Input
Amino acid sequence: MLNYKHLQYFLQVATTGSVNRAAEKLHLTPQTLSGQIKGFEERLGVALFQRKGRKLELTEAGKLALSYADEIFRIGAELEESLGEAPGARMTPFRVGISDAVPKTISHRLLMPALGLAEPVKLICREGRLERLVAELAIHRLDIVLANKPMPANVEVKGYNHPLGECGVAFFAGRALARKLGRGFPGNLEGMPMLLPGEDSALRAPLLRWLEKKGVNPRIAGEFDDSALMKSFGEAGLGVFPAPAVIAAEVARHYQVARIGQTDEIRERYFAITVERHVRHPAVLAMSETAHSDLFKRKPGKSGA
Output
């Protein structure tokens, strides 16, 4: 069985990078702490640290152990906090992983219904690459993952994709660049600077195929994994950028940019990924219902097709 005192000692050494500094914080002698760490490594059967000069650095096994240690103590703190609350005030944690390719506005609008349930939930959001989030979902560190593409086929995780909805794609530019572009979308993109989502984005390949189909060759001025960062550079006038049509009004208002065109030939799709074939979690059900009835409800609009 895991010795949690050893885990605490390991976490302190890993955080400070020094046995002496960790020993001071733990009110132990360095010799005692070194012996405890050695015992922990022998118990696990792996080396957690390696010496580089006068510093201790984590091995690959140590880095993995640190991620688990952080999570274990975080969950322990949540347990203490929950049990310390009055029975009527206790909130169930709802842990959501959000792929960094999903726009913040869409994440916010999808998650809001979960906060309006009769039984309140405590929302905990983690953002990152889809593959890492799905791995955390598999070991139940997350209840759900929000993504703009289905779970990757090469990930050996038993999970299920629940479609939330889809929409077309709108294109935006800073006010000065928009005036320079003029009319005639999408032909007016020829030779103009464009900002693209990163290679991991589900939008990138369909967008490039659509541009090729239209015979339009913009100048690629930047590529971004983070959609918010891409919009910020677009606001600064560095290029035209795409965003889901369903949040076009919010994008134009928040970033002070002009919508220059839109197409329904490219579709942005969004999924809730869970380990359940049939969704039972009330927060996920509330999100799904709102997504289908409101956020992604089909609305008439302009198309650049």
User: Anything to note?
Assistant: The first helix runs from residue 4 to 16. Confidence is low (pLDDT under 50) at residues 300-305.
